[in-house]
Amino acid sequence: MVVAAIPIAMAFVRALLTVDGRFAGPDNFTRILSNPELAGSIRATLVYAVIVVPTEVLVGLGLATLVHRTVRRGWMRGLIYILASIPIVIPMIAVGVTFRLIYAADYGLLNVVLGGSGKGQILWLSDPILAMLAVASVDVWQWTPFVFLVLFAGFQTVHHEAVEAAEVDGAGPWARFRHIELPYLRPLLVLVVFFRLADVMWVFDHVYVLTGGGPGTTTQFLSLFMYKVAFRFDQMGPASALSAMVMVVMTVVYFAINRYLPKESAR
Amino acid sequence: MKRRLQRIATSLILLGALLVLVFPIYWLVATSLKSNAELYASVPTLLPQNPTLEPYYSVLVDRNGSKLLVNSLVAGVCSTALAITIALALCYPITRLPTSPRVRGFVLGWSMSLRFLPPVALVIPWLIIIRALGLYNELPALMIVYTVMNLPFAIWMIKGFLDEIPMETEQAALIDGATRFQAFTKVILPLSKTGILAAGIIVLAFDWAEFPFALVLTATDQAMTFPVGVQGLVTQFEIIWNDMAAAGVIAIAIPLVLMVAARKYVMSGLTFGVVRDT
């Protein structure tokens, strides 16, 4: 436990020091906060989160409802389970590579299918808006199945009697969902949204191999920005300051949301 | 009539979803089996015309990928074993012995809150520590970091599995004259075997997939892991697509094989314990 606290403490210590180890005061903090690219990276991260999280939750919820209501055969459910779990366990780097094969302008499958060549090529990864959408689509591809699995499992905990009683009373599919199934799913929905938000704020791997933050800085999310400050510009102090601030923010958010999370069962 | 239309519509939606899910992986595998000559055919073929394992040879031997593969596995297996052992040592007292709820709450709350700290935010402080320890570009550096980073998850999972073992089974052993340690090794361990296995496989998969730490803490083949190697193939000037795809397939294959082999146990861990046996 103590060991886990060392890197956290180290971020704060380094944030307060100069390159040669003297006390720097708030210098590193002001330097990172006045970095002109910081605001852009926060904005890009928020845009990404706003695109990705609702899409994943809605599509995942929709598919979970659909499969729950229409697929009855055990083996089919088993097959869907295995297929849906594939994206969760494979490395994000490999997912990035996979989608590079699809989105690349010259060799990418998408452009080949669309028939564009030479001037007609669509620059999926180097057009500001398309690059954001392309990167977001990869997240959606990888994590919608996760949302699906969790919510589909949630459906299995709904009591049959309640559903049957409602049907006898003439409740339609929507009423059934809204008044009976949704209350069961609510704690899981909160958990899933929270997990996805925590991850999405710090996406790194697949963006690194797909766009590297580009074109320009349009997909330079917070994590890539921090990486660039630390390793391209070699400014460990300011990067540590950002790191420390992030930890404070995440801790505050965690304690603010903590009581809404389901206890014990939350792994 | 309406019913039938509905049925067709839902089937189409599900089929579409499956296609979107599976096709990218299929395309990755197909590309990885194409020869260099076929790669630059003006119209890429859906099926590799002359499937070849050349790209795999190129990645593993010519580009020394097998060394990175070994690095990844060594770092992964060692840190998984460490994380699981420490998690067991922490979870046993809080689930089995009379511990105050405050200690219990502290351990669990602490590990839960650590899970929400973004790993990327910890890369820089870890780099400073690893450099101070003189472990930069050494495998033990990755083992330490991976163990610490995965501990919270391992604790939550193993606690869940230990909770499911009734107290009475252990007490029976104690009454029969077994020591606490004997009761642990002879009763608790065998009963929680599947849980430990599941936690181990998931942690191993996380280690295998980990990228930012390996990128920052290693520099050469001596300690570099496979995902960093995969990334190296992408950011080059000219991408050799079939080699890149082959590296991607290898990166995907290992966790996938582990998952499918142990899916019964692993599922619940991946989905907060919601998904139980199916």
Folded structure, characterized:
Chain A is mostly helical and 267 residues long. Chain A has a single domain (35-234), classed as MetI-like (MetI-like fold), CATH 1.10.3720.10. Chain A is 73% helix and 0% strand. In chain A, helix 2 packs across helix 12, helix 7 (128-155) crosses helix 9 and helix 11 packs antiparallel against helix 12 (236-258). Chain B has 278 residues and is mostly helical. Chain B has two domains: 2-32; 55-270, MetI-like fold (Orthogonal Bundle), CATH 1.10.3720. Chains A and B meet through helix 1, helix 3, helix 4, helix 5 and helix 7 of A and helix 1, helix 5, helix 6, helix 7 and helix 10 of B.
Tell me the radius of gyration of chain B: 23 Å
CATH topology-level fold name of chain A: MetI-like fold
Oligomer category: heterodimer
Q: What is the string of SSEs of chain A from the N terminus onward?
A: HHHHHHHHHHHH
CATH architecture of chain A: Orthogonal Bundle
Helix content of chain B: over 70%
Reported for the largest beta sheet of chain B, the result is:
none
Q: In what range is the share of β-strand residues of chain A?
A: under 5%
CATH superfamily of chain A: MetI-like
> Residue ranges of chain A: pLDDT <50 for 5 or more in a row?
none
- The secondary structure category of chain A is mainly alpha
- Net shape of chain B: globular
Order of helices and strands of chain B: HHHHHHHHHHHHHH
- On the 0 to 100 scale, the average pLDDT of chain A is 85
Number of helices of chain A: 12
* Rg of chain A (C-alpha, Å): 22 Å
Beta strands of chain A, count: 0
Count of individual helical segments of chain B: 14
Number of domain modules of chain A: 1
Quickly give the CATH architecture of the largest domain in chain B.
Orthogonal Bundle
CATH class of chain A: Mainly Alpha
